[in-house]
Amino acid sequence: MADSSVPGPGHGASAPLAPLIHGRARLLILARLVARPGGLTFTELKVAVGLTDGTLSVHLSKLEAGKMVSIRKEFVGKKPRTLVRMTAGGRRRFAGYIGELQELLPGLGDSPV
Question: Mean pLDDT for each consecutive 10-residue tract of the chain (113 residues)?
Fold first, then answer.
């Protein structure tokens, strides 16, 4: 069992921020998804974050492999639709990431930049 008094990865001032989340594109994706518990379609997300289909697809694959998001493909009538949602674990990890940012940047949540 790990000693809870010793900071693990992602904790403490010298630890890096979670690389899965910290990349610009993935941070934008997760920021949009955290505000929409019901999820966003691939197209809505693409427009919201300003990425190409290919770039968004690559980043979503990484986030899905990291269990941050779930991706469900379905048909609405005869049209395919891909729905992307943040997982419960993804929400917890994102909240932890935001907490780490607030530790690094005191006052981050207190006032607008």
Answer: 40 65 94 96 97 97 97 94 97 93 78 49
> Domain map of the chain by residue range?
19-98
Question: What pLDDT score does 16 carry?
Answer: 67
Q: Which residue has the tokens 């890096």?
A: 16
- The CA distance from 27 to 45, in Å, is 12
Which CATH number, 3.40.30.10, 1.10.10.10, 3.40.50.2300, 3.60.110.10, labels domain 19-98? 1.10.10.10
The count of residues in the chain is 113
SS3 sequence of the chain:
CCCCCCCCCCCCCCCCCCHHHHCHHHHHHHHHHHCCCCCEEHHHHHHHHCCCHHHHHHHHHHHHHCCCEEEEEEEECCEEEEEEEECHHHHHHHHHHHHHHHHHCCCCCCCCC
